[in-house]
Design goal:
Distance between the termini: 26 Å
Number of strands: 13
């Protein structure tokens, strides 16, 4: 049971259909299939997937390669996207988009290196972003801070196609709060990610290895806590070509103080593609301490989601 008395079991509670796929934080309750009522936790995949969407952003502040003209988003992809969502807004800022001017302060520091890794003879050493009521295009708002500390090590100083660069970074979000247009909130009081990858000069990385720990909190439009989840674990992100998205594999351990239950989330080729705020392929197995285990599968189309083989209407879009 929730601390406020609402049931959370996947076979309990009342059947609630999603009010709209673009709500950043949906009304608490359980989803149902399009035909027969099927009770499930509408946030079953959410706490596993949400940290990965931020982990995808970190290299944009750790490595100048992402500023190469050949790696910027195409006009077609930019037209399909919106900075209405917080992780997307962070990525677009790194790509030079003018997000909420006057409401965000970016403080970069650079270090010199022997080769041109994408930004001439310098590389990012630290970047601090401070949001103060940053108004996003979809009507939401972003507050709080993100700091990314990075280091780069060259394999040699030949600066040719045989030269590789090892990049490692620590990303810390502090009191990062996304407030949806209806007043509901997603808060990251403290979240730390440590990531690393290796790439050739002039080529993108293929995978990121990320370890994460922190807290995710969700509140409805009245300020009532839906979940307060601590998590820790490791994920590997496989980057799709030309900023097209990523696949994530790995395990997170989660503990929600509101529902008073713990869970373990494992994903297999869970895929996020540009233009869709839901996974479009892959699956997540969620094993819970109360026995209400769930298998989530996604795709092939945006919004195609099933839980334990039952088609469901998605609630979250972030």
């Amino acid at each position: 049971m929730h601390a406020n008395g609402r049931s959370i079991g996947s076979r309990m509670g009342s059947c609630i259909r999603a009010a709209g796929v673009f709500a950043a934080v949906a009304v608490a309750g359980h989803g149902c299939s399009d035909d027969d009522p099927y009770y499930y936790d509408p946030y079953g995949y959410y706490d596993y997937y949400y940290p990965a969407s931020y982990a995808y952003v970190d290299p944009y502040y750790s490595d100048y390669y992402y500023g190469y003209p050949t790696y910027l988003l195409s006009v077609r992809l930019k037209a399909a996207l919106s900075n209405a969502l917080p992780a997307t807004a962070l990525r677009d800022l790194a790509l030079g988009e003018g997000i909420c001017p006057g409401q965000v302060t970016i403080t970069p520091e650079r270090a010199t290196v022997a080769c041109d890794t994408g930004g001439g003879g310098s590389v990012p050493a630290s970047t601090i972003l401070q949001f103060n009521g940053c108004d996003l295009s979809g009507g939401g708002k972003l507050d709080g801070s993100l700091k990314v500390d990075a280091s780069q090590t060259l394999s040699d100083t030949n600066c040719d196609t045989g030269t590789s660069i090892d990049v490692s970074y620590t990303s810390t979000t502090t009191n990062l709060v996304y407030t949806a247009p209806n007043g509901s909130r997603i808060e990251l009081p403290l979240l730390t990610r440590k990531g690393s990858y290796t790439r050739r000069l002039g080529s993108p990385p293929s995978t990121l290895t990320v370890s994460s720990e922190g807290r995710i909190e969700r509140y409805d439009e009245k300020g009532e806590a839906l979940a307060k989840t601590r998590f820790t674990g490791a994920q590997m992100l496989t980057l799709l070509p030309a900023n097209a998205g990523f696949r994530v594999d790995g395990t997170l351990m989660l503990e929600d103080s509101v529902s008073e239950r713990s869970s373990v989330g494992n994903s297999a080729s869970l895929t996020r593609t540009e233009g869709c705020c839901y996974p479009t392929a892959g699956s997540i197995d969620v094993a819970r301490s109360d026995g209400d285990d769930e298998n989530w599968s996604f795709g092939p189309n945006c919004g195609d989601i099933s839980v334990n083989g039952h088609h469901v209407t998605p609630k979250e879009c972030f």
